[in-house]
Design goal:
The structure holds three protein chains of three kinds.
Chain A lengths: L27 H10 L5 E5 L5 E2 L13 E5 L3 E10 L5 H4 L4 E8 L4 E6 L8 E8 L5 E6 L10 H4 L9 E4 L5 H12 L4 E6 L18 E5 L5 H9 L7 E4 L15 H27 L5 E7 L10 H22 L4 E7 L17 H14 L3 E4 H13 L1 H8 L2
Parallel strand pairs in A: 6-8, 9-10, 9-12, 10-11, 12-13, 13-14, 14-15
Antiparallel strand pairs in A: 1-2, 1-3, 4-5, 4-7, 5-6, 7-8
Chain B lengths: L11 E11 L6 H16 L8 E5 L8 H8 L5 E4 L6 H15 L5 E7 L5 H7 L3 H6 L8 H16 L3 H15 L13 H6 L2 E3 L2 E2 L8 E9 L1 H7 L3 E11 L13 H12 L8 E3 L5 H10 L8 H7 L15 H5 L6 H14 L12 E10 L4 E11 L2
Parallel strand pairs in B: 2-3, 2-4, 9-10
Antiparallel strand pairs in B: 1-7, 1-8, 4-7, 5-6, 8-11, 10-11
Helix pairs in contact in B: 7-11
Chain C lengths: L6 H12 L2 E5 L24 E9 L2 E10 L7 E3 L24 E8 L1 H6 L4 E2 L1 H11 L7 E5 L14 E2 L2 E2 L3 E2 L1 H10 L4 E4 L17 H8 L3 E4 L12 E5 L9 E3 L2 E6 L3
Parallel strand pairs in C: 5-7, 6-10, 7-11, 11-12
Antiparallel strand pairs in C: 1-15, 2-3, 4-12, 4-14, 5-13, 8-9, 13-15
The chains are: A alpha/beta, B alpha/beta, C alpha/beta.
Chain lengths: 404, 390, 265
Amino acid sequence: MTERSPREKRDPLARKKARHVSPATRSRAMHAMSARAAQGRFVLQVCTDCDKATYPPRDACPYCWGELVWQDRPNGAEILCETIIRTSTDLYFRDHLPWRMGKVALDAGPVALVHLHQDLGVNDRAAVRLMLDRGGNAALFALPPTGEIDMTDPQLREFTVPVAGKTVLVSDASSAIGLAVVKALHDAGAGLIIAGMLPPERLTDQKHPILNLDGVQPVPLDIVDQVSLSEALSKVGGPLDIVINTARHVRGGGVSEQANIVEQRRAFDVSAIGFTRLAQACAPMLAGRSHGAFVDLISSDALAGATDNAAFAAAEAARLSLLQSFRHEMRSTGVRVLSVFTGPVEDEHHQPVPPPKVAPARLAAAIVDALHQGREQSCVGDVASDAMARWLSDPMLYAREKNL
Amino acid sequence: MNRTPAPYDGVAVCAPVTAPYVRFSPESAHWWAGKLLRQLAEDTGFGPADIDGFCFASFSAGPDTAVGLTQHLGLTPRWLDHLPTGGASGVMALRRAARAVQCGDAEIVVCLAADTNQIDSFRHSLANFSRFSQDAVYPYGFGGPNATFALITDAYMRAFGVTREDFGKLCVAQRANAMSNPLALQRRPLSLEAYLAARPIADPVHLFDCVMPCAGAEAFIVTTPEIAKARGLAAASVLATIERHNAFPEDPVQLRGGWAMDIDQFWASAGISPADVDSLQVYDDYPVIVAMQLADLGFCKQDEVADFIRRTSFDIDGDLPLNTNGGQLSAGQAGAAGGFQNMTEGLRQILRQPLGDQVPNAEISVVSGFGLVNYDRGICTGAAALRAMK
Amino acid sequence: MNTATNPALAAMLGDIACGAIRVIDLTNILSSDFPVIVLPSEFGQCEPFRMETVSRYDGNGPAWYWNNISMNEHTGTHFDAPAHWITGRDIPNGTVDAIPAEDFIHPAVVIDIADEAAADDDFIVTRGFLEEWEKQNGAIPARHWVLLRSNWSKRVGTLSYLNLKDDGAHSPGPDADAMRFLVHERDCIGLGVETVGTDAGQASLFDEPLPAHSILHGNGRFGLQCLTNLDQLPVFGSVIVATPLKIKGGSGSPLRVIAMAPSKD
């Protein structure tokens, strides 16, 4: 067994640390860049006429006044100059000084100001990653181009969600997905994992080896039930850093055909109302944390419906909508709201579905990776990736094809 | 390829006025403008009805512009301009007003810059400075102009072998010049040792490389030689001016400014050479920009800047009297008025109305402006050569 | 107008007031964590109790406190009407709203199976067991609730209440012969149990599956589930008051069940 990172201890008399976020005002063009950064892409605006890339985001090509479109571009760069900022009037950066930044010449063309990883200096080659800062907006971060990246860089940590030593709540740990997530968090060194057990429980559940791992604490939890949620959270005791919402209610059925209103209601209760309850209850706890995060596991069926799982897809669509609002609410607190999209999972709920399906362990690894990369939106597996790509390119066509 | 600009015949520049700066002021930019106009009236005898041209620059007059100022201050001009070019606005006000007077669109143009500095207002004006800054500068540590110029300074030192000692020499000389200026906010002697030992702000920029934001106002009048003479006002003529925006956009880091594009034409139009300059008043938000201008304005070659600084004296009685009021680095940076300060000081030296010590036998001043860090560099540059009228 | 209470009722009230008649609450607390029956996943599931605060002296109602509640008809301590089962679908007045009010008050006989259930989670009450019980305690009188005291209520709050294992729930209950005996030969009003269903946990696997539900309701009898405090009742001599909500066409209802029993001394 790996050594558990010690859980954080605090001075009980110290006043609560105020949490600030990085400056958040952005142009519409920059928001477009952030929307792509959320997907983990490195994009620049490129002119449809002269094919030159430009940065910072503009509304017209500065070379020929042609139209600009967002394109994935190579992210190599060379560092031109650097500085260490030691004073700032901004409350967020004052909390994190000194701050290293620099200017790079991107292989793609433009020069750009960047956050500098501690292992980089002037004239070094760098890989520039488009990451989301504490305010949820895209920022360029220059990282070493090869080899293992030192994730303990204090600036880089501001862009990611460390798991080691953190207290994590898994809303439904009794499912195959939930168990895999608990295992992955444990392997990533989480300090305490509160494993929500959806009632009714089997007597044997408590003997499950994953739920008996060091640092795992099962508690009964049905996020649909306010009382259950309150009681589960009351057992967290210390600070809560990360919430991973694995709760879902996968049932087949259409709208007019084989519709089961009871199951449909349950699906909405879990995906939508349950999500809201969980988010509402946990948000203040997460907001006080240095690296608070809420990860939501969501079906790619949320994007355009699913004839065979109509209610589930609709409930997941409701969840997606709530997630957007919740993410916006959390931006001012610095809490990251990450969504991990998946297609059918290799579990008991997807027995009639042919492959490809996503193994729970892979899903769990993707959740931990999304945290470590601070990636707002991830797609796990071919089905979800394909769904996202088709939805992004032509939502109406995709909705039509998906429901044929 | 550029058409040669017409000479500034029939134009006189006079009446430099400075409202004493303060570090923080609860008053508005309008108040500072009014205070300065009153001072101008006392100096010149011009009242509101006399002024038929008004050119205004400010960062803190919002939501008002020059338009609001006319009604606020009781002006009825037939020519009006509002300049958003900040540190370059003094030279640009001169250019515009001079042509207006020359062509008869106005006769008495007051060029005025006023800015207040309330506690915490600097942070707010920074945060809303420009779209590129909001998108691509402030999110990277929010170091403000210090960080932007730290990057420029870092690259400049690497490119041309300029050292902190070289920048220190410029700052120390300006402080020495400031000591005779009763209006300068910082007049305590500064040694090179103290300069070098100062705390870092954004490496390699240290404390004495930075200006002190403050409140204040500056103004001058552009009119005809006849009117200046009738009023008994000492005046200067305009030998030449240049202006450029967003020069050399392909330079990865700003190692030269827009002056370099037009400097040959500048000296040719003025009919003088750098050696003829008696007082040089360059924009000095950071010493790297002073160094840059020494080369871009033609006083030395770009790659010889370090050597030029080492062998030149910049004191009031030195080889090249530089920023003789102390510049913004010692007198303070009163927002857009900082872009007027070199105009008023350049005028004062050749009109023999100095705030502090007089540059001996000063006849010709060269004044430059540099403004608006929209993203990673200053966008607006300008320069003017002035000669005292006999 | 005669304001005097009927002498019999007055006597009863007097006995309650002086303690000669004890009133015993046989109801479990209705809470969201109280377990509900779990059916195999191909069937629709029973909704547990849910409570949502509408206001509590706050912005949504400054002077009042109230909640929205929701649940299945068969949640918590609850009553099964004949219409609950397919065998009872044609029984006249088989839904809770139609059951005559006098059927809500009946005497009870308490059969103690606590030791047997403690020894065997799947203890089956057979006709033989009941006949042996009658030899020890006397005949089960007609028109009585038959209450099985299994002490299962003591397990409330633990996983051993539903007692779910990989092969399903494990809890005691009657077999078909026992049910036929109680219904046809003892003319019982219904069967009351401490477990979550009148049938045993494994009763769906019996040769005659789910006999309690099937036989009780097919013959117009009732069920009471999730009872508690049966250990405080005498074997004979108690009276049960069980009044389900008057749900239109309802198959059952959560309810407050009370018993009246003579003082023990």
